[in-house]
Design brief:
single chain; 8-stranded parallel barrel; 13 helices; elongated
C-alpha cells in the first residue's frame, strides 16, 4: 500500500536531535552532469549561472553580454533560442566568445518550437552545451510527446545534457487537470495550492522519466520546478529532493526588481541551500533601466559566499554607521575596498589562488572597530566623532600600523595588495 505524500509546506518533520547545529546540512546526493567543462551536482560546488536579455540574433550585443556575465563570475550562461535567426546566430556567438578567450558553456532556452529550430540549424544543436526544455510548452495535445521526444533525440545525437524546467507560469494544464480530478476522489482532498505544487513536481519528474525511457542517460538530466513565491518554492524543492537523485537547478522565477528581487531570491534559496538542496542557482533579477545584467551574478556569488558554501572574492565587513560615525569616509573606504578587490579578483584568481578567502573589515569608530578588525585578515578602525584622528590597522589579529593624514585610503589598499602578494603570491 503506497504511503500518502507529505506536504513539505505544512507537514514539517520534528527537529532531529543529532542534526548539525552549525553550518549547512550535507549536500543532497545527486548524479553529476557535465555541461561543457562545468560539473553540476555530485561533489561539485554549487554552480552560478545567468541568462542574457539581448536579442540572440544580434550577435554583437549577445556576445558582449555573455562575456560580461562570464567576467562577473557566471559559470553557465543561457540564451533565448526562439527564432531561426537566433538559432543561426548561436554558433557565431560561440565562435566569437572563443576568439575572445571566453570559454563559458552556452545553454539554449527553448519554448514551443525548439524541435524545429534544432532540426533547421544543426550547427546550433552542436554549439550549445545544454538544452533547456519546458514540459509545459514543448507541445500541446497529441504533439507534445512527439515534440518532446524529438528534442531528447537531438540531445542524444549531439551528446548534450538537458534541463527539464517546469514553471509555475506555464504549467502543464492537462496534468494539472488530471491531478485535480484525482484529488476530488480523495477521502481528504488537498487544497488547490498543494495539488498545483504536485503538478509542477510531477511535470518535471515524469518528463525526466520519459527522457530516460527514450534513451537519455539520467546523468545528463537536470531538473527545475520554479515558482514566484518564496514558501511555495521551498515546499516544491523539499519534496522534489526526496523523489530522486537528479541534479537540481534553483531559482525563484519572476523574483522582481531591485531589493525586492534580491531579498525574495535570497530568502528562498538560502533555506534550500542550507538544507543541502541545490546544485546550480540563478538569481532572476529584473534590472533597473540601463543597469548591468551582471548584478544577478554578484548576488548569487555573495549568497553562496555568505552561506559559507563557496568563496569568490574577498568580502568586506563594514559597520552601518550611527551618530558616532558622522564622517562618510568609512562608507567611501568600504565601497572602494570592495570594488578594488572585486576588480583585482580575475587576475588574483590566476596569479594568487586562495585570495578569494581573504576577509576584510572597515569600521567607523572605536566601539566595535578594533574587535571586528582583529577578526578579519586585515581590518581598519577609522576614527569616529570626537576620537583622535588615527586609524589602527590590524593584520591577522595583531595591530600592525596606525595610519594618519590624507592618504589613509591609498595606504590601506596598498597594505591589502601587499598582504595578498605575501600570502597568496606564487
Amino acid at each position: 500500500m503506497s504511503m500518502p505524500l507529505r506536504d513539505p509546506l505544512t507537514d514539517l518533520p520534528p527537529p532531529c536531535a543529532d542534526a548539525p547545529r552549525f553550518g549547512p546540512s550535507p549536500r543532497r546526493a545527486t548524479r553529476q552532469v557535465r555541461v561543457g567543462g562545468i560539473a553540476v551536482g555530485g561533489d561539485a560546488p554549487v554552480v552560478v549561472q545567468s541568462m542574457t536579455n539581448t536579442d540572440t540574433a544580434d550577435v554583437a550585443s549577445t556576445t558582449k553580454q555573455v562575456a560580461d556575465l562570464w567576467r562577473a563570475g557566471s559559470e553557465l550562461v543561457r540564451v533565448t533560442v526562439n527564432t531561426p535567426e537566433a538559432a543561426a546566430a548561436v554558433p557565431r556567438i560561440v565562435e566569437k566568445l572563443a576568439m575572445m578567450n571566453v570559454h563559458v558553456p552556452i545553454i539554449g532556452d527553448f519554448h514551443y518550437n525548439g524541435h524545429q529550430l534544432l532540426a533547421g540549424e544543426p550547427a546550433c544543436a552542436q554549439a550549445l552545451a545544454k538544452y533547456r526544455i519546458n514540459p509545459g510548452n514543448v507541445g500541446f495535445g497529441k504533439k507534445r510527446d512527439t515534440q518532446f521526444a524529438q528534442l531528447i533525440e537531438f540531445a542524444m545525437q549531439y551528446d548534450k545534457p538537458v534541463r527539464i524546467g517546469a514553471n509555475w507560469g506555464s504549467l502543464d494544464q492537462a496534468l494539472a487537470a488530471q491531478l485535480m480530478d484525482e484529488n476530488h476522489a480523495r477521502a481528504e482532498p488537498w487544497d488547490a495550492g498543494r495539488v498545483l505544487r504536485e503538478a509542477l513536481i510531477r511535470s518535471a519528474l515524469d518528463s525526466a522519466d520519459r527522457a530516460v525511457a527514450l534513451g537519455l542517460p539520467a546523468d545528463r538530466i537536470i531538473l527545475s520546478a520554479k515558482v514566484s513565491g518564496v514558501q511555495e518554492l521551498i515546499a516544491v524543492y523539499r519534496e522534489l529532493a526526496t523523489r530522486g537523485t537528479y541534479a537540481l537547478h534553483l531559482g525563484l522565477t519572476e523574483a522582481g526588481i531591485g531589493s525586492k528581487g534580491i531579498v525574495a531570491s535570497s530568502a528562498a534559496l538560502a533555506v534550500l541551500l542550507q538544507e543541502g538542496i541545490g546544485d546550480t542557482i540563478r538569481i532572476s533579477l529584473t534590472p533597473d533601466p540601463g543597469a548591468s545584467r551582471t548584478q544577478e551574478v554578484i548576488v548569487a556569488q555573495e549568497l553562496l559566499q555568505t552561506l559559507g558554501l563557496r568563496a569568490f572574492t574577498p568580502m568586506v565587513t563594514a559597520c552601518p554607521g550611527c551618530g558616532r560615525t558622522t564622517s562618510e569616509f568609512f562608507q567611501e573606504l568600504a565601497k572602494s575596498v570592495q570594488e578594488h578587490v572585486r576588480d583585482k579578483m580575475p587576475t588574483w584568481k590566476i596569479t594568487h589562488p586562495g585570495a578569494e578567502n581573504l576577509t576584510l573589515a572597515v569600521m567607523g569608530c572605536v566601539v566595535n572597530g578594533p574587535g571586528e578588525s582583529r577578526h578579519a585578515n586585515i581590518g581598519i578602525s577609522l576614527p569616529g566623532t570626537g576620537e583622535a584622528p588615527a586609524a589602527p590597522v590590524f593584520i591577522d589579529g595583531e595591530k600592525a600600523k596606525t595610519l594618519r593624514g590624507d592618504n589613509i585610503a591609498q595606504e590601506f589598499v596598498a597594505m591589502i595588495d601587499d598582504y595578498v602578494e605575501s600570502k597568496y603570491g606564487r
